[in-house]
Predict the structure.
Amino acid sequence: MANVTMRVWRGDGDGGEFESFTLEQNEGEVVLDLIHRIQATEAPDLACRWNCKAGKCGSCSAEINGKPRLMCMTRMDSLPEGPVTVTPMKAFPIIRDLVTDVSFNYVQAAKVPAFLPPPMPEGGYRMFQEDVERGQEFRKCIECFLCQDVCHVIRDHEDNKPHYAGPRFFIRYAELEMHPLDQNDRRDLIREEMGLGYCNITKCCTEVCPEHIKITDNAIIPLKERIVDAHYDPVAWLGRKIRRKPKTSATDAVVQPAP
Amino acid sequence: MADSSYEHHEYDVVIIGAGGAGLRAAIEAKRRGMKVALVTKSLLGKAHTVMAEGGIAAAMGNVQSEDNWMVHFRDTMRGGKYLNNYRMAELHAKESPDRVQELEQWGALFDRTKDGKILQRDFGGHRYARLAHVGDRTGLELIRTLQQKVVSMGVDVFMECKVLKLVHDDEGRVAGCVGYWRATGEFVTFQAKAVVLATGGIGRSWKFTTNSWESTGDGHAMALWAGAKLIDMECVQFHPTGMVWPLSVRGLLVTEAVRGDGGVLRNSLGERFMFNYVAPMFRDETADSEEEADKWYDDHDAGRRPPELLPRDEVARAINTEVKAGRGTPHGGVYLDIATRRTPEFIRRRLPSMYHQFMELASVDITREAMEIGPTCHYMMGGVQVDADSEATAVPGLFAAGEVAGGMHGANRLGGNSLSDLVVFGRRAGLGAADYVEAGHAPSTFNQVAADAAIKEALAPLERADGENPYDIQRDLQEMMQTNVGIIRNAAELETATKLLDEFTERVKKVSVKGGRAYNPGWNLATDLPSMISVSKCVTLGATMRKESRGGHTREDFPNPDPELAKVNMAQSSPGGNWDSAVEVVETPILVLPADLKALLEETK
């Protein structure tokens, strides 16, 4: 098949430049196939992360023609004619070539107060499909960190990182908050230390999510509502707490052992 | 104690590998108050466990109350063609329900039955609907749950740190290991009272595989070099349904849940050919007409199971035969059809990642068209021989759990039994290691000379000027193993493979890589090649010695099972202890089944 030119950013924390590779492109190939072919031939030291090559592990995040995407799920034939530019994620420090230091995300993960369920009754917890589905949407997250990369609160303002968890962790907090069994209350933490207020819901994160999680609509906005209610209006908060059917029903189920 | 000029750490328990087994071992050892290090080649949460799709097998009986551990045990042993370590199969069947429920205590959200229990789905070789699942992304749920638990417990995690070799003390105990940080290429030594191997599989040595770059058999090889025994290395599982087109995704997994949820296999003539491949041992419980099989999907009491849900070895061989007989698809597979059998809504809800995978990578809409699939290298049944209860190996202080351990699955693993294996035996390895440490065992010394030698060997490819590109060697090895040690084997091809592996050994000794040590994939691959060669030799040797067909091991020249060989494992060891040392194989008797468990196998219903 036809040849294609790949412009790949190469360098490290001290700087770098684009290197062009012209190589064969076959039917059905994705960007990662071309990167692998470059590694196997011209540049065995070209650094990139990948694992599953099936869109399930979230390792091969990069910016393709300037857009944050998974290299393994970006078909070459979906890109416009002409050279394809591949650069590392911009929001994180560069280790080498396409590999960035994503430890910021692991630091944030360590700050999340753990899931706290009631003791498990004999026969296991009872939860209903409609109640687990909200959390299941967020648990589809493959931790590719593309949402973190595209979020301008982090991308354009490095100094925000210490006090801003970012979209990936807002869906984690939303998942815990909506979990039918969880008893931990993280709302003050989310408001005061995780910087939810910095998000001005531009939905960039939702647009780049390869799992099509509705990060803004289904996680961030409901989380903002809950926190605002909790903070400014204790009566409304109490009302919501009582009306929160899923948690109430699951808690009921917990005290009744399975038959 | 150690005299290391490298970054050095001291721990009670070092766990190598952070997939399901490693994470679960870390939780258990940490709970016991151990100082634990978890060392992984990749980032945390990216291990191959995320690729598991269909579910985790546990006889909870939430969908069919007839299910219990005894039936699960029987199914596992029959699926494994009785080569299993029966005690592992027993512990696994008894403990997996608790391990699944424990995941919910840590935040997992499985799909539910109407009355709010964990939903279970049908899978090949399991008599009852037994797989707890989350759509078709169960592995992701498992790894994320365990990862979040490990992080909340404060386990020390060493990410993107590749372990090269285990290190002993003067008395032959394991004393730790040596490795390097991928980001910088700087070396690091770990001194440990106990080491748990949880490094997963070896599938990267074949051309068409579901496995990622990580599955290079590091743990299998390091255990062999350290003096442990490997068993059943000839038993490699080729999953029946991998993608075959486009070439760039050839081998990529298509979950068995497609068949569990109603999908059927057809050849190019449109025949549901699996009815022609029902082995005698499965005839009593398998439908003999399409009509009967189709009734079963709606009501499990109205008919017997469809033959598409036979164990994986049976289905993979059948597909292979159909294609060889000229009844394959244009791209050399067969058709997997769910489009004509289920509604688009059902397919998208039950199999969302399969839908996206085919839509985005192959431009095939599986709600409208059949998939083209064929066998792909998927799983290693063989591995380090362990004590079933503690996961201790023959080397004091060394434990192994998950895919790197052998015995649990015998000659063939049932789908869904892998995720449960990880949590059942991951936990037990954590307990085993903690018991060992608490009993006061500790290495007397850390053999720095051996660590230095491993480092020197790892650096050699960088210092060689004009050797061979490691990627060329890897590609040729994958091609060679696919051709000569694939799904169907014979003496001539195995002999060829044996000869060629000696040539590969010499090629690896001359490999050279350009660039520096900082995040250099070429160098990283060069340090993986010794493991890949070692395990490829073991698979070839085991396959040569086992002159019969059993489970994942099929010999064209010995097409039937040999009852005498059902009594032995091919146990391999390497007295030399280096990656290029000779490997010896000895037939060793498998554990004899106690009468009460034997009776379970003989029950037909």
About this structure: Residues 244-259 of chain A have pLDDT under 50 and may be disordered.
